[in-house]
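re: that chain from earlier
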Amino acid sequence: MKKCPKCDVELKEVEKLDLKLDDCPECKGTFFDDDELRLAKDKAVEDANWLDFEIWKHEDKFEPKKSNFKCPKCNEQMIAIEYGDTKVVVDYCLKCKGIWLDKDEFQKIIEELNTDINNKSFSEYIKEAIQEGKEIVTGPEGFLSEWKDFKKVLHLMQLRLFVEKPRLQESMIKVYDTIPPFLK
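^ sequence. v structure.
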């Protein structure tokens, strides 16, 4: 039985985003087992699939602190760490890799990821495409998943290019319109 690290009441299993998550009926916090936060994020923001946050990927950018909470799953002391650049501090268990989010923190993460996607420049998307291209070979998720991430970044890069250079899009449409129908 998992207990809320804040309220010490039994967590209730609920279905959210096609996942079975553990919610606190009192404080409305949520416990995500290993990899469930990534899966929930992918379902909540399809365009953010490729934005995988790996806690230890950029150790030089953060300093983990001791959390005030014990893990609901294994009762180990958790650490508090910022989720990427979202400014949301998550409580993370080093042993089982579970993550505790307080009420509304998941929504804040989703909002920040959407903002990040919408504010990246074309040149930033080029850098992301190169990184995702490398991850096709070296990434942790397997070839097919990494390939989908790469394609998603290329698609977003194309959209950003047309936002930054609307005349280019108009020119491409004119060229496309000159192609005979049997070649389209």
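The two ends are 59 Å apart (CA to CA).
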